[in-house]
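We emphasize that the prediction below concerns an isolated chain of 388 residues; any contacts that depend on oligomerization or on bound cofactors are therefore not represented. The input was used exactly as deposited, without trimming of termini.
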Amino acid sequence: MADSVLRASNWLTESGIQHRGVDPSLRGGVAAWYEIEEKQYPFLYSEITGYALSALIFLYNIYKDKKYLDRAQLGANWLIQNALHPDGGIKTRFYLVKHYVSPNYCFHYGRIYTFDTAMVGYGLLQLYKIIPKEEYRTAIEKISVFLIQKMRAKDGTFYPYYDSKDKKFKEDLEKWSDQRGTFHAKLALFFIDYYRLTCNPVYKKYAASLLNASQKVQRKDGRFITGKKDGSTHLHPHFYTLEGLLYGAVYLKRNDYLKTAVKGWKWSLTGVSADGSVSSIYMDRSFLHHERSDIVAQILRIGAILCELEPSIIKPHLALLKKIKGHLLLFQYEGDRKQKGGFIYGAATDGLIRDHLNSWSTMFALQALWMYESFVTKRKSLNLENFI
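Result of the prediction step, given as a token string:
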């Protein structure tokens, strides 16, 4: 287990997934993934660079190796110098391969997402706690103002994206990430940590109102709808909702959030097979068994946290949780030396490479494996600092 976490962390710093060239428009940005056969990185991704800040500080706190701080600062510099829009939001993707370019996500004229912006803000907060540079604090404040003044609705929820050309917030129901939804509960991580930093109760209020709104729309069976048009549930944003609720349960001391998260996690287990494989989408009253390693890591990470918070409730599910952990390890790449340790995005249960090496899947996986070892195997005290 420890070896798997270390190999994943080495992939994050040594594989080239984080750009380390001299071009200031690229240096420090983290690519979404690496395509093994084409040997290319399609685009640098701001949201994922934000995750990388949290992941690198998490790894620094484990290994006490300064290289993680250095890489986190590289990422922060890229975000502040290149991705931070004058309006305070975070631009989405900087494309490196021409045929991948999409107008909706392009740095120069694309959408600015609420979720991406908050994840970058949270990552900057993790770095600021250790290296309190004024430029980090200024960027965090800009992000806060953008989220609160431009993207927050009167009911405590948030609009999904801001059109940088029209300077208006908008919504599109064709994709879960383009619509208002409970996955925005994960924004609570940013507001809670900003509250912890500033002691300003207004940020605590924003987090609580957002989580309260998410609670109200949970279905009786425990799931959260992520697709308004068809009533479907994509497990990836479903788990984002639970992650926000768990963070609120711990740092806002709200047992009701914990109960909601437990209910949502137990529902997700109905989509887990006996071998530990995890379905990714619930649609038309059934699970679709297409797998993604980020989702496998998310269900394992939440289960490990709940094992510490609600051991009696999780105890009947420990055998299945162990199978999920074993299944997650099947996604770790064992190919060429430079790329060894990253996690494959798509299904790999037959040992064949079917997809790219994914940066956020790798980050989620290394934290999930560490949490399983810490909270389930060794029964160490809960620690949610630097949540990815």
